[in-house]
Amino acid sequence: MRPRGASCPLSVIIPTRDRAGVLAGVLKALLTQARDVGGEVVVIDDGSGDHTPGLLTRLARSDTALRWIRQTASGPAAARNRGMEVASGRIVFFTGDDMYPAPGLLEGHVRAHAVASRSAVLGHVAWDPAMRTSPLMRMMAPNGPLFNFAKLRRSRCRLHRFFYTANLSMRAEDLGSERFHEGFEGAAFEDAELGVRLERAGIRLVYRPDLLVSHRHALSARAMTRRLSALRTGRKLLSALHPELAPGLRGRAADLALEVFVRTWVPLEWLLHLGPSVPEDWTNDDI
């Protein structure tokens, strides 16, 4: 057991709220990998009302690699900041409660930082094959508005645009005192805003498509409209903090067209039975 205060190679930081069914499987896989690299998993329960606290209590009793904190519901930005306060890893790995790691994921991130200096290492995110995805989900990611790895491959890898905290790691010393802006109450552009500041500080992005997580989160068309609304709110704050990033006329028109399309798709998805589905043991309130 590592002495309190001692450093370790890597800390996994996961904010969670009301996703115990999915979180259980994700944690078991991550804890196995964390032990293999001598690391830890830090979970921040962001005001869950389900059995997440009981799950974390049971797992922590049997696995010393797991540490967890409970906070009142404050959003993922505040939760990640709380996690970084207690994390002891020389590398900090950000992921979500619905991101299932492929074998060797954490070891791959550790190895990547052995050769990548002053960098954020970004892995790939794909829909989990265990669930049935919808046509709309496949349009939105992994090469669409939610995650756009095709655009990343074509671009010059601007950090803030692709600072996806679903599968991303950094050296703690490179993060320094930078933290997520807690004015972002939802999971929308809070990671991009931190990416803006890190990019200005000289941090570059290294994309590693071989480092994979499977996204265990089915989104119906109705849930997608809520997601787009959250993104609109997050973008508004991002633009207020960094006016040079405010979308122009073309960008605003594209955002509006996407919202109209998704709203139009809501009844069609229901009528044509094209919605997603997930295994029964997953917690997912977005279907």
Describe the structure in your own words.
This protein has 287 residues and is an alpha/beta fold. It has one domain: Spore Coat Polysaccharide Biosynthesis Protein SpsA, Chain A. It contains 10 helices and 8 strands. The protein has helices at 20-37, 52-62, 76-86, 105-115, 135-140, 149-154, 172-175, 190-200, 221-241, 249-271; strands at residues 8-16, 40-46, 66-71, 89-95, 99-101, 119-127, 167-171, 204-215. It has an 8-stranded mixed beta sheet, sandwiched between helices. Helix 1 (20-37) links the parallel strand 1 (8-16) and strand 2. Helix 1 (20-37) crosses helix 4 and helix 9 runs antiparallel to helix 10 (249-271). It starts with 7 loop residues before the first strand and ends in a 16-residue tail after the last helix. The model has no long low-confidence stretch (mean pLDDT 94).
Secondary-structure map:
Blueprint: E1 8-16, H1 20-37, E2 40-46, H2 52-62, E3 66-71, H3 76-86, E4 89-95, E5 99-101, H4 105-115, E6 119-127, H5 135-140, H6 149-154, E7 167-171, H7 172-175, H8 190-200, E8 204-215, H9 221-241, H10 249-271
Parallel strand pairs: 1-2, 1-4, 2-3, 6-8
Antiparallel strand pairs: 4-7, 5-8, 6-7
